[in-house]
Amino acid sequence: MQTTRLTLELIRTVDESYPIIIGNDLAKETVELASHPDLVDRRVAIITDSNVVKLYGAQLEEAFASVERETNTFVFPAGEASKTRAMKEQLENQLIDAGYGRDSLIIALGGGVVTDLAGFVAATYTRGLPYISLSTTLVGAADASVGGKTAIDVPQATNLIGAFHQPKAVLIDLDRWVTLTDDQIRDGLGETIKQACIADANFFDALEDAFVTRGLSVAEFVRDDEIAELTARRNCLIKRDFVMSDVHEGNRRMCLNLGHTIGRALEAAMGYTMTHGACVAVGMNLQARWSVEFGYMTPEEQERLERLLLAAGMPTEIPAGVSVEQIMAAMTHDKKAKGGAIRFVFQKGIGDVMTFDNGLYARPIEQSDIVDFLRRQKERP
Ligand code: GLY
Questions:
Q1: In this predicted model, what pLDDT tens digit does every residue of 186-209 receive, in sequence order?
Q2: What own/partner pairs with CB < 8 Å and gap ≥ 24 does 215-224 have?
Q3: What is the residue with the minimal CA distance to atom 1 of ligand 1?
Q4: 172, 170, 232, 167: which is closest to 206 by C-alpha?
Q5: Residue 7: exposure state from Cβ atoms within 10 A (0-12, 13-18, ≥19)
């Protein structure tokens, strides 16, 4: 029989640009963005968590009601434990039961868990719905809301199942930061300090000034308008730059994973009992010590990082009770593990990252060398 070969030509130019707005009291602004001609006729579904709904749900619903736009709010229990397949399915069933179809718009209202989960629902519901992120946390500003990564966790690893799905707009509402607990602020500080370490020495200086020189507590930090606004703005600028240059994480976007290879493994090894940001802080500090061994950072630069993390109340060592074997088991499940060696991003001093052969930003390290390094960290006095 004759073989038939066809080509379905599909060369696409896609404009996925979107605004990022940092400010106070952004419910009205969210409604205005949702009134864009491409979005105005869509049915609005607000997806949020059990904490944020109490603080912000009614205000956002009222803002939509004031332009006679009907909304339904879908609420799931707050916390990383909700980032599961089961919770995604539950939300999808609720949307189906409420009659939401292809003509819908999702508003992800909340922090990193909400934007990851609601964004992933948006990515697959009716093969993809537009969504707007109204971000209420420092984690959202530092990392989760910008860049279109959406995902859920599985027991083996965080964010293992997900999609790149860019929002139509991101709004960072600074007013909500004052409602965060110290742990939630520190969760965002892990990512924030990481952004400064990879790309912005002046931002690092400003964080050092706030925590080390002025001795601000994390609660005072989010209430200081100047440093809070600077933190949101610098985080978004850095994230925007890395995403614009490498949206699908072919190479440069991997720099945003500084400290994450150890951090994520630690998070899984601890059964997600320590926040992501705190685990990233440990990962960053350990990798900075490794950077010193490799000659990528001076000991003084590593000490500055450790001092900043400690001043912000962040952990800097592998917690007692977590073994190197547990970390390695989790690390080899992680999506970044390829073959025998595992790739790590390394800081170059403060505010820059190392590049390796062929312009790659991540250096592969054999698992036996990782074990050796982690054992030495565990044995430190
Ligand atoms: N969270 C890292 C990234 O967005 O690439």
A1: 999 999 999 999 999 999 999 999
A2: 215/311, 217/182, 217/313, 218/182, 218/185, 218/186, 218/189, 218/312, 218/313, 219/182, 219/185, 221/185, 221/312, 222/138, 222/177, 222/178, 222/180, 222/185, 223/178
A3: 143
A4: 232
A5: exposed
219-241 pLDDT, tens digit each: 999 999 999 999 999 999 999 99
Ligand 1 in reach of 256 Cβ (< 6 A): yes
194, 257, 280: residue to mutate for ligand 1 pocket, most atoms within 8 A of CB: 257
Residue 253 near ligand 1, beta carbon < 6 Å: yes
CB neighbour list of residue 325: distance below 8 Å, 6 or more residues apart: none
147 lines ligand 1 (CB under 6 A): yes
Fold classification of 20-179 is Rossmann fold (3.40.50)
Give 148 Cα–ligand 1 centroid separation in angstroms. Answer: 9
* Class of 182-378 in CATH: mainly alpha
Domain with CATH 1.20.1090.10 in the chain: 182-378
In the chain, residues under CATH classification 3.40.50.1970 are 20-179
From the CA of 163, how far away is ligand 1's center (Å)? 12
Antiparallel, parallel or unpaired: β 104-110 and 131-135? parallel
Q: Is the pTM of this model over 0.90?
A: yes
Instruction: Determine if ligand 1 sits within 6 Å of the CB of residue 149.
Output: yes
Ligand 1: nearest atom to the Cα of 257: 2
Q: Of ligand 1's atoms, which has the minimum distance to the CA of residue 239?
A: 4
CA distances to 31, 218, 223, 242 from 205, in Å: 37, 17, 19, 21
- Rounded to the nearest angstrom, the distance between the alpha carbon of 142 and the centre of ligand 1 is 10
What is the phi/psi pair of residue 229, to 5°?
A: -65, -45
Radius of gyration of the chain (CA): 21
Encoding tokens for residue 345? Answer: 């991003």
